[in-house]
Amino acid sequence: MKRVITYGTFDLLHYGHINLLKRAKALGDYLVVVISSDEFNWIEKQKKCYFTYEQRKALVEAVRYVDLVIPETSWEQKITDVHEYHIDTFVMGDDWNGKFDFLKEEGVEVVYLPRTPEISTTQIKRDLNK
Ligand code: C2G
């Protein structure tokens, strides 16, 4: 059983997120998705989410590629997460390219996947405000 993990905010869930989750699941058999808590988003990423953590969790849990959703409350938890959940592969979109290579020292394969162009939560908000 190959276990994959990925992290994100996943606010206003869109096809770019789904494309990432689909490709992440294709790299193994079990996908853990770590969703940023409301506090983590605000304090660490200055992101104000439209949907609360619970709402974002419910949406991502409904995606067929996802097996488990847990909260992201710190930047540092990745190292403990990969051991606690016996992760083989860590996946992120390539806007994070190189940022998490330290996880290779934990024996984890680190994969950066191309982002889906044109779509983002920020773009959706911008378009809706026009
Ligand atoms: N993504 C993508 N294509 C898009 C938009 C997002 O592939 N058009 C990917 C991102 O690269 C990321 C995932 O979808 O891998 C989630 O994106 P966000 O919700 O924007 O996550 P982010 O705020 O980058 O949080 O500790 C890591 C952070 O929690 C990542």
User: Which structural class best describes the helix and strand composition?
Assistant: alpha/beta
Contiguous low-pLDDT stretches (5 residues minimum) are none
Give, in order, the helices and strands. EHEHHEHEEH
Radius of gyration: 14 Å
Mean pLDDT across the residues is: 97
How would you explain this protein's 3D organization?
By secondary structure, the protein is an alpha/beta fold. Helix content is 35%, strand content 22%. The chain starts with a strand and ends with a helix. It has helices spanning 15-25, 38-45, 53-61, 77-84, 121-129, and strands spanning 3-8, 30-36, 68-72, 89-93, 109-113. β1, α1 (15-25) and β2 form a beta-alpha-beta unit. The longest helix has 11 residues, at 15-25. The chain has five helices and five strands, in the order βαβααβαββα. It binds [cytidine-5'-phosphate] glycerylphosphoric acid ester. [cytidine-5'-phosphate] glycerylphosphoric acid ester (C2G) binds at residues 7-10, 16-17, 20, 36, 45, 72, 92-93, 95, 115-116, 119-120. Keywords: Nucleotidyltransferase, Transferase. Its EC number is 2.7.7.39. Pfam families: CTP_transf_like (PF01467). It comes from Streptococcus suivaginalis.
Descriptive terms for the model:
alpha/beta; 130 residues; 35% helix; binds [cytidine-5'-phosphate] glycerylphosphoric acid ester; five-stranded parallel β-sheet
